[in-house]
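Weekly structure sync, notes
Attendees: PL (lead), two postdocs, one rotation student
Agenda item 3: pending single-chain targets
PL asked that the sequence for the first pending target be pasted directly into the notes so everyone works from the same version. It is reproduced below exactly as submitted, 349 residues in total.
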Amino acid sequence: MKEKNPTIEIWRFVASIMILMCHLYYVGVEEDYPFSLTFIFVEFFFILTGYFSYVHISKDMDGIGSLKNKVTYALRYVINKFRKILPMTVVAILINYIIEYAYRRNEDGVTLFRFWQQLPFDILEVSDLYTEPRVVPLWYLSVELFILPLICLIILQKKYIRIIISILVPLTCYLVFGVNNLRNFPYDYLRGLSAMLLGVLIGEVTEILKKKIFESKHKLKISLIFYSFGNILMMATVFFSFYDLNIMALSLANFVVGLTLIISADVVSTQKIKRSAAYLGSLSVPIFIFQWVVGTGVLCLDRVVGYFYSPGLSVLWRSIIYIAVTILIAMGINHIRTVRLKRKAKMNI
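Predicted structure, written out during the meeting:
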């Protein structure tokens, strides 16, 4: 198993926190708050998905011949990817429904039926196509579920075809629709496709840059320059989002160039840094999946507190509980996963 890039793992964690902060509106924070534009970090996750898909699939490309084999491989790749996160999403969705039902049960039967009939669509990750999803951030996963097979097939094409598609599709999409937070079909799917193709393009470019840096006499200097400048660009996006500067196109460019430079740089890290970065990176997916569920729980708690002490929890307390509990749940899930992997490793010895 190839070692993960520590810096990318840290940025995965940062991205999940930025999206968590973006969703503070759900627990009552006003719309003009700092971090209100950090939805752009969803693009970062899409780009990473495209890049990692490129890295994984490119290793197996030589052994895949016919179109039928390519389609089979693409579907198997997507199934394996979603099999790892499906238990978490099912648990998150069920908890969200139970919490919502707890303070909706007095509604009429027709309303409750419509409420529960959305559950299968949410669990199958297709709610964004047919209904309003209860766990809003999971629209990202529903887009991935349908777009990833296409991304896999594009990666499995000849190199020049792959590069042309990875340039033309994102360029056309962002020029026509701009960089925005559209989540209605088919714009959300075009958004996901374009960002993932940018990740594929990053994979192609980094392969070339890594080779050039490796052959250079000034390998260390170039790597340090790339690494430093790449992180500065990534931090600039956080700065833009925090200060509510609506420069989404520039933020997207920062992701593309910053990631390309960071991945291309051959910077050595200590084992302690690698372990810490890997741990932070492992929290990103649980944070992303459970944040909305925790928000629903916080709103329910606010109603309970408000029943005894009007007017309930302050916005500050709702925000603190929302952030802290989400991170704690992610840490708990990661601990359980680590224990299970250790047990499995012992059984295989």
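Discussion points:
- The chain has a mean pLDDT of 88.
- The chain has 13 helices and no strands.
Action: rotation student to compare against the earlier draft before next sync.
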